Amino acid sequence: MSAPPLSTRSARVGEARRLLQRKFRRDEGLFLVDGPQAVSEAHEAGLLVEAFLDASESTAAARDLGSRLVASGVDVWAVEPAALKSLSGAVTPQGIVGVARISHPGIEDLLASGPRLLVLLDSVADPGNAGTIIRVADAFGADAVVVSAASVDVFNDKCVRATTGSLFHLPVVTGADLVDVIHGLRAAGVTVLGTAGGAADDLDNLADSGVLAAPTAWVLGNEAHGLSREVAQACDRLVNIPIYGRAESLNLATAAAVVLYASAREQRRA
Fold first, then answer.
1. Over the stretch 130-158, which tens digit does the pLDDT of each residue have?
2. Phi/psi of residue 75, each to 5°?
């Protein structure tokens, strides 16, 4: 990091900046991670390729991480503040941005591992929701998150930030045909539950009857339209979350937290 800081016009910075676009992430199999925690998690997962460190305005945590990365053999490029800001989607960058490889866990390996708790995302559109759900899944010990081909790109910078590093803690299968995945899960003995307002089954009844203690996959639908018809029909049961106050509904990430906690609690009691 002794060379002059790279500017926004630097070819290396420009190549990294392209990863803010889905096309280049897909073509190159790389994505950006922002901030010391996410960069550190990517490194610990063995997926970090290189990093860019703000030469003059980075935090102590970012500088310390940069030194550790250099010591471990990772290329760390000092950049001007404007160059780092051009790589970060955050309003206030945290001083370091990394380039990480996209991992590609397979659904076959996931099914063979005997999963007990899974999350499936059906046409989820908001990157903040998708990222928060990945974080929630990690918090409650889910074995994996499976994302449909019609959902948001989970390697979008906003989604990656919302995971706060959880993207590197559990397998995230992308580009999935959820109907095929659901059929595979049911054949493997996993109960597939779709969330749907107004469904006949409610979460309390399922918890009381012991259903949630079994291996379970929760399917969460699009923020505006819910589950697609094909996916809803493929589920074992559709489940609503009882609301006892006056709120009309829960947002998607909050609903995910409720159902995953309910399942995790019952599975640990069993």
1. 999 999 999 999 999 999 999 999 999 99
2. -70, 125
Does residue 113 share a domain with residue 84? no
Rg (CA), the chain: 20
Q: Tell me the three-class secondary structure of 1-56, residue by residue.
A: CCCCCECCCCHHHHHHHHHHCHHHHHHHCEEEEECHHHHHHHHHCCCEEEEEEECC
pLDDT at 199 over 80: yes
Closest C-alpha to 194, from 228, 170, 149: 228
The CATH number of the domain holding residue 33 is 3.30.1330.30
φ and ψ of 49, to 5 deg: -95, -50
Strands (E), the chain: 30-34, 48-54, 75-79, 96-101, 117-121, 144-148, 172-176, 191-195, 201-202, 216-220, 237-240
**Cα–Cα distance for residue pair 92/87, rounded to 1 Å:** 12
How do residues 4-43 score in pLDDT, each as one tens digit?
Answer: 899 999 999 999 999 999 999 999 999 999 999 999 999 9
Which structural domain range is residue 126 located in?
A: 107-269
What single letter denotes the amino acid at residue 218?
W
Residues in the chain: 270
What DSSP state is assigned to residue 124?
Answer: -
pLDDT 10s digits, 222-244: 999 999 999 999 999 999 999 99
CB 182 within 8 A of CB 235: yes
**Nearest-angstrom CA–CA distance, 171 and 88:** 24
pTM of the model: 0.95
Same domain flag for 137 and 234: yes
